Amino acid sequence: MSESAITITNLTKRFNGITAVDNLSLEIGWGELFGILGPNGAGKSTTVNILNTLLEPTEGSATLDGHDVVFDPEHVRKVIGVCPQEPAFYPHLTGRENITLMGDMHLVPKDVLESRVSSMVERIGMETDIDRLAKEYSGGMIRRVSMLMALVNDPKIALLDEPTVAMDPKSRRAVWDYIRELRMQGKAIILTTHYMEEAQELCDRVAIIDEGKLIALGSPTDLMETHQSKNLEEVFLKLTGKKLREET
Amino acid sequence: MNPRRIISLVKKDLKKTHREPAVLFLLIIFPIVLTIVFGFAFGGIGDGGTTSFDVGLLNLDATSPQADWSMAFVNNLTDSEVFVVYAYDDNATGQSALLQGNLDAFIVIPEGFGDSIASYYGSPIDPSSWTNTTIGLYVDSGSMMAVSAVPPLVQQVLMKTVFGSDAMTLNLPIEISSPALVKSSTFSQWDFMAPGIFAFASIFLTMIVAQSMTYERDEGLLKRLRTTPVSSAEYMVSQTLTYMIIASVQVALVLASSFAIGYRPATGPAGIAFTFVIALAFSLVAVGFGLIAASISKSAEVSTGVSFAFIMPQMFFGTFMPLGGATEVIAKFMPSKYLTDTVTTLFLRGAPITTPVIWTNLAIVSILGVLLVAVGIVLFEKFGSR
Ligand SMILES: Nc1ncnc2c1ncn2[C@@H]1O[C@H](COP(=O)(O)OP(=O)(O)OP(=O)(O)O)[C@@H](O)[C@H]1O
Ligand SMILES: [Mg+2]
User: Fold this and answer.
1) Which residues of A touch B223 (CB under 8 A)?
2) Of the candidates B8, B19, B227, which has its C-beta nearest A101's C-beta?
3) Which of residues 152-171 of A touch B (CB under 8 A)?
4) A79, A92, A147: best mutation site toward chain B, by most B Cβ within 10 Å?
């Protein structure tokens, strides 16, 4: 196992003219729950999508579990669990079939897979609905299934892009517990979110990015202290709102 | 390439055929309904059980010194399982039997037939020294089946007589007159149409492939899969396999439902097995077109329209639509035509599976299928998957 779970070095991603990620460097350790915060369009998803091998960086590099996302994407794909911002699922399959399909892609042994899916489903409170077709699901149900689709391979590194959007408070708590447990098992987790109380409650460290640039990095308590704020939301607004005030 | 991943993806796609009403309808119900509706509409099923052609024969060369040749020709006609030969002593009786629908065709071997072949063997490479003759051929115009099947079959028998094998057309002193069509009726339209249903059903695979690929792309499913260890080769194999399975189910359904309403193809298990094989090859063509349609379509809705650009011509020029003149030329470019032609040869003409033309057709469809799938994959990976 490599020393740090994720190493991002001078990472830049440009889309014809727009710099979505701008010279970002981060290091995330095993057993760390790392939050990426930032306003809409800050570059959170772009960063996550480079880590999950969907996008290639324009400049810089990223390694997961010691393997470069560009040069060894096959290894990276084996060790990650990916929850995309827009949940992608097969509407004509049941929730259970969607989750099992992802397990098959990762070649999770069949007997393990079956019992794992059942216990995951129970954890997240989906027992009664899991065998319904996914097209009949509510928004929050979809999100929960999408989350399990990401975690069914028991990944060493979980990349979760706004996993708790649209969930009711009870489901969200269940997901939080789940994520905490993953951290206890020594897994590295990247979580993007717009819910500041979620980041504050959950994350060991957070990075706040804006226009692709890192503008703050540290544990929620450190950041609140440094910026003399009573919660993370205040920190966020102070840092990302600055520009708005300057402009007006 | 891991079989578990492929099987899992195939199952995922096959579930669509019974869980998504539109797919269920287009791929499963439509072929059955089409078969039954056309079967009844163009009717007469069950009474056209004949699988061979009744052919009248008048040999005007029977008494010449070279009569062996015409005898051999008659024997070959009789031996070929497709013809039931009735000898006639004069032209008028034969013609009238044809008119009354008692015969599918009437063949007149001209005087000098044997001399003609002998002259050919005298100097095979010098056409100017040949004695030319023409075999008279009259076919029942009411039987589309006879019209399309008899002339080439007679040609085949002639070749066999002269060369002892099914040699391809060469320059010969004997010509077969372009068949004079004689009206009467024997078979129903349906016997002629049934083979086209097989291609008709499978053609629509293109649309489902295109729709499902664009859907998976637009909904981020392809991307999601791409973050897992599944390779694009495994994914493409799963797609191809899925539609090959569906195509064979379609053939089975069309066969079963046409059988249920009384249709009896003029072929045995070997011919039916061959039909499955060429239908599988044709499903590759459909998948290839589907991938190409998906590559150039911005959305699942657009892909429906784009697929029709591939479906329509094949439907009109390569299934059971009547053809003639210039359309025959266009049909040569329609992959579905080769499937229909093969099924027609087997089911309608009752040709044995050793018939060269069906193997040529299989080769054409297979090569085209593999090529189109390859092109489709390249295009889709490059432009279609974004
Ligand atoms: N495929 C693309 N083509 C062009 N521009 C893109 C593409 N993907 C992202 N961008 C741009 O990159 C920037 C960062 O987008 P990104 O999706 O990473 O933001 P985000 O932080 O995830 O925002 P949100 O909170 O809304 O999810 C935006 O300006 C966006 O318009
Ligand atoms: Mg985002």
Assistant:
1) 54, 84, 88
2) B8
3) 153
4) A92
CA proximity to B271, closest of B359, B337, B143, B152 = B359
Residues with CB under 6 A from ligand 1: A 15, 18, 20, 38, 40-46, 85
Q: Using CB atoms, which residue from A82, A92, A107 is nearest to B15?
A: A92
| Protein residue whose Cα sits closest to atom 5 of ligand 1 | A15
Name all domains of chain B by residue range, CATH numbers in brackets: 3-44+188-384 (no CATH), 53-186 (3.40.1710)
pTM of the model: 0.77
The atom of ligand 1 lying closest to the CA of A13 is 12
User: Per residue of chain A (248 residues), what is the pLDDT tens digit?
Assistant: 678 999 999 999 999 989 999 999 999 999 999 999 999 999 999 999 999 999 999 999 999 999 999 999 999 999 999 999 999 999 999 999 999 999 999 999 999 999 999 999 999 999 999 999 999 999 999 999 999 999 999 999 999 999 999 899 999 999 999 999 999 999 999 999 999 999 999 999 999 999 999 999 999 999 999 999 888 998 999 888 865 555 54
CA distances from B184 to B101, B108, B117, B152, B180 (A): 5, 19, 34, 21, 13
The secondary structure element, H or E, covering residue B94 is helix B91-99
Cα dihedral value B359, B365, B371, B374, nearest 10: -120
Closest among B201, B367, B197, B205 to B293, alpha carbons compared: B205
Q: Is A59 helix (H, G, I), strand (E, B) or coil?
A: strand
Closest Cα of chain B to A187: distance in Å? 18
Nearest-Cα distance to chain B for A243, in Å, is 33
Minimum distance, in Å, between the CA of residue A99 and any CA atom of chain B: 12
- Dist. CA B360–CA B342, nearest whole Å: 9
